[in-house]
Batch of 3 targets.
Target 1
Amino acid sequence: MNQMVILASDSFRIPVGEWADSVLEWVIENLAGLFNVIKAVFQTAYDSLAWVLITPPFWAVIIVLVALAFWAKGVKLAIGSAIGLAVIYGMDQWENSMQSLALVLVASIVAILLSVPLGILAAKVNAVSAIVKPIMDFLQTMPAFVYLIPVLLLLGIGPVPGIVATVVFALAPGARFTELGIRSVEAEVVEAGQAFGASPMRILRQIQFPLALPTIMAGINQIIMLSLSMVVIAGMVGAGGLGGAVYQALTGLNTPLGVESGLSVVILAIFLDRITASLGGAKKAVHV
């Protein structure tokens, strides 16, 4: 009986993994040029941003970031940011942190540019929403480590596969929150805009988008937080920065390095979270 069950189980096996491997081999053979272009673009963006953050003296970068915190939320966040960034420098994790910040910013910008228009389109067209939702479910629930396998084969080691894996991993909240925000705008407000003869694009730009902005910013906040969490995992494919330091500490059982790099990740996460949360706090005025 047990042998029959085993035979039945073997005969029923669905070779999803082999199918995925075949698709990946086809992509590598036929789309290598496209991925070389993607790699060059992302590498240039990352190198440029990392150069901007690492080349100036650390205190000059701290002043700029503290000024940004003061503009976004006031004195308390500015003082907290100054202390946190000084702690990062004092732990000798400044260069690693700036490399990670560059990776997070590049990945977050790409994810925002893809997810926000996708969310708007999903809010406007129900058929698009029906297609996008299961794809976002898939992207959001797939273990993050799995994304590293195909990007490593397609793009090699370094920061670029880390950026691409981070974009895929962080994409879903931006599209979901944007669709939710646009759909949550009261129909009476939209009808008032239509009554005044506003075009659909103007209603979107001047009514729906401003009213949905706090929800959209919550999605952008989630994109940045997920990107920062992915930085550590991306260290396994040679992305460097704090992820590389955490991976080095893990493989070498180096407790001091693990604590210092992990604490630097936490400080950057709090800084970015407070900045993005404050930017989405105030509702914009509606003008038709």
Target 2
Amino acid sequence: MISRVAETCFWLGRQVERSENLARLLSVNQSFVLDVELDPPQRWQPVMVVSGELPRFKERFPEEAILDGEVVQRYLTWDQDNPVSLVSAAYWARENARTIREVISLELWEALNEFWRWLMDGPGKRLYRSDREAFYSRFKEMAALTHGVASATMLHEEPLTFMQLGWHLERAQQTARIVDIKYHTLGPTSSRETPLEAAQWLALLRSCSATEPYYKCHKNPPNGLAIVDFLLRYPTFPRSILYSLKASQVDLQRIRAATTERGEECEVRVQRLLDYLEAGKSADLSGGGVHAALTRVVDETSEICNLLHSIYFDPSMPEAPAAE
């Protein structure tokens, strides 16, 4: 499998996963600011921080724009100069699929292409204006459709494995970023949470599609520490960081088995991060422990992606033997 195709499959998976996470975050935050009285800086700035776009947003818009939910949502949804906006993610997912049409299935290409046309040809923009919740839901449905169609119609070989590796690593990183939003709004977890803090934690569960799974696993009333522990380390919840990293480890093993034993360094980095998460205790997550753990997850997954790039997507030429 050539490097260009492997990288394109990897980024197709990441872009689809990225758009789903951002759409869910925008949807939950929009409902939250309507239901709960928050100070203006706490309404939309945390979403911008989690997306990583706050510095660029401040360069392009006046200072008070961060207080305007409509401006923030337009920037994160429609701005084509914003590399992480929903429209950018949808464009690059389709563009990646277009360049490897001979590798992916026809059904997957049609699903991504149809979604792009819906988004840009009118119906998507009309739905954005008339029903914001339904609009964001279409992104979540598109991601679920992509996962299902890819698994059901593509050969379970390297292209699909690189795609799955992309969305598993992206999911681990995005879950870490979304959980970290709490520390940009309320600060470290306290022993006695206010009703506002409790509402923030429940919104966090919704942001990760974790409300129902959480209540199936916990009988006691939710609290911040238990929710963070669930999203970090619950072994069978597919959006937990631990589950996503273990899934990416399986992907890496499959790829290494099929690519002349390259890539062991990536598996070692993932295993170290898994050991760190599994060795931690719930008490370690109190105070600033959550922020430290999430920062490590974000930094390590970025390093793993850089390693993947150097090993599989842009490998250097092997050193030539010295001339005699």
Target 3
Amino acid sequence: MSHVKNRPLSPEQLDAFGAELDAIQQTALQDVGDVDARYIRRVLKTVRYSEVIGRALLYFSFFPPAWILGTLVLGISKILDNMELGHNVMHGQYDFMNDPALNGKTFEWDIAGTSDNWRQSHNYLHHTYTNIKGMDADIGYGLLRLFPEQRWRPFYLLQPIWAFLLAVLFQWGVAIQELELGKVFSGRKSKAVIKKELEPVLKKARYQLLKDYVFFPLLGGPMFFAVLSGNLTANLMRNLWTYMIIFCGHFTADAEVFPKSIMEKEGRGHWYLRQLRGSSNLRGGKIFHILSGNLSHQIEHHLFPTVPARRYAELSVKVQEVCKKYGQNYNSGSLPSQFGQVLYRIFRHALPSKPSSAVPAMGV
């Protein structure tokens, strides 16, 4: 358990810890400006141009390399749209630009989930209640038991299968996450409410399905099935990649889960500490970080969600210095190592398990 790697902090030390992180964030926000605006506009152009190139190449699929290259380019375009563009813009990281095309409150991305639902389930709930059991729906996405603190049920015996299906269909899992279908089945949500909530979800799903599996394939004429299979493969690429990156952000071996009581009298320093201990980073090169939407720096993202993500690598150096000063574990590793730990959690906690220690994870 990672809490054995962390030094207990007194209330005064917690306040000082929070103040140092506040100062890092404030300095970064004061420096945000033209360089960030130019960067995100380049990302937006790259997404748009690569989508056009990828889709155009698929219309020449009678030449097999064109299908492979077109699918790859389209898949990368969808990954960029999802991660470095959509995710970060909708966090409001570029609202300072006052550009309607990059406004966090109105941006719509190329996945099945509606942006409005995501802003509620991710921007608000996940970032406010990070890794708090019963409050953060991202813990297992309502399907998986990833921590021994979660109550075991026989349903979890097959969770390696549920985890595989969630990875393959990840955009659809995100799309229905906000609906909380479990409450419908248990009678805690009325049919009238779920019917109203389903309307925008079905509208977005219909648009995405018609676009990728009807409209663009029809434009391909005799290449209909080649274009359709290219779109299907590109979406699968995006689903698997985002699943890996996001699961590595909160479910590695040292990532902790917290009880609801953690919020009682939670101050700023305590909040920062929970974000730190509930998150984990991935090491890699510049291209890797861009394709992950810089969520490879999940710790910095959770500490400073409104700071443009392109700055996280620079901020991570300062955050590590603060963690070292206050004796806190900075959870970071390679993608194979961190994802291997996620897979271990999926298989291990499919079976009954108990927390290894009675020591409160956030005790001071």
